[in-house]
Specification:
By secondary structure, the chain is of the alpha+beta class. About 25% of the residues lie in helices and about 30% in strands. The strands form four sheets. Strands 1, 4, 7, 8, 9, 10, 11 and 14 form an eight-stranded antiparallel sheet that branches. Strands 2-3 form a two-stranded antiparallel sheet. The chain has a two-stranded antiparallel ribbon with strand order 5-6. Helix 1 (about 45-60) crosses helix 6 and helix 2 (about 75-85) packs across helix 3 (about 95-110).
């Protein structure tokens, strides 16, 4: 069994999109999400967590301990009922001790529950889990352009429409955008007595692997070309941490190169990382 994590971590992930829509807004015709005041692009935490879940499911293929709780086609209450059966609880009947047993079973069997947490009080109550891994919204380094591209459809659906003009459609893309997201890993939430999720060193290694490779198995015409460009991890010597997270995040900066008027690739930016005089007890690990 993998050992529990004993260190606090923060991380900065830089990724980009070329001619694609990284996260459409359903309230705006699925156009790329933006901050309306600044024009900077936004990608929600939920979007990235979905990609991590999909990667873990692809790599581990529902192996014991690495199932995914929140996924298409599986009602959440179905998993809750399975937990009750596994720990010997009657459906719809459990005291606080029983709920805690079901909660522990869910954490042990579902990677995303022990990683991100979950509210599992519907149906058979399995309690609530506060996940040790939390991810902020992503924000583009600079304002993005929401470009609308007209496309045509040559195929028709019905035989009687064979002679009609071809239909028109639209795709929303970002010609290029470099995005930054910050995240946190709490050893205290992973190991807290009675409330810890059991998030382990093996789980942590899988999380880093997912952040590096999640876009490689998520390609589609809608998302264009997306790739992880940098993953910088700050490891603390203790479980409580040795420095404020915001001061560590400020050490990582991405700026457009001088003379570039319209960035269209990662090479149009320069990423600087201040490695000098790191706080005592903090180590910088460059994954990418």
């Amino acid at each position: 069994m993998s050992s529990p994590i004993n260190n606090r971590y923060e991380f900065v992930l830089l990724y980009d999109v070329e001619n694609g829509n990284p996260n459409g807004d359903p309230d705006a015709g699925n156009m790329p999400r933006i901050d309306p005041e600044t024009g900077h692009g936004i990608v929600t935490d939920v979007c990235l967590k979905r990609k991590i879940r999909n990667y873990v499911e692809l790599v581990r293929a529902d192996a014991a301990g690495y199932r995914i709780h929140i996924k298409e086609g599986t009602p959440l209450n179905q998993n809750h009922a399975e937990a009750y059966k596994a720990v010997g609880l009657a459906t719809g009947q459990a005291d606080s001790n029983g709920v805690n047993k079901a909660r522990q079973w869910m954490c042990a069997n579902f990677f995303d529950v022990r990683t991100f947490g979950a509210v599992m009080s519907t149906g058979d109550n399995c309690g609530q889990v506060r996940g040790p891994v939390q991810i902020n919204f992503s924000r583009s380094i600079e304002p993005i352009i929401q470009q609308e591209v007209t496309i045509t459809r040559q195929a028709v659906t019905r035989v009687e429409d064979i002679e009609k003009e071809r239909t028109m459609g639209r795709k929303h893309i970002v010609p290029y955008g470099l995005y930054r997201v910050e995240g946190y890993v709490s050893a205290k939430l992973a190991n807290a007595q009675n409330k810890g999720t059991g998030f382990s060193e093996d789980d942590l290694a899988l999380l880093w692997d997912a952040l590096v490779n999640m876009f490689e198995h998520d390609h589609s015409a809608a998302r264009g070309k997306m790739a992880t460009r940098r993953l910088l991890v700050f490891k603390h010597a203790s479980d409580l941490g040795n420095a404020p997270s915001h001061l560590l995040f400020e050490r990582v900066k991405a700026q457009r190169k001088a003379g570039v008027t319209a960035p269209r690739s990662f090479s149009d930016y320069v990423v600087t990382v201040n490695k000098a005089d790191l706080p005592d007890g903090v180590e910088l690990i460059e994954k990418v």
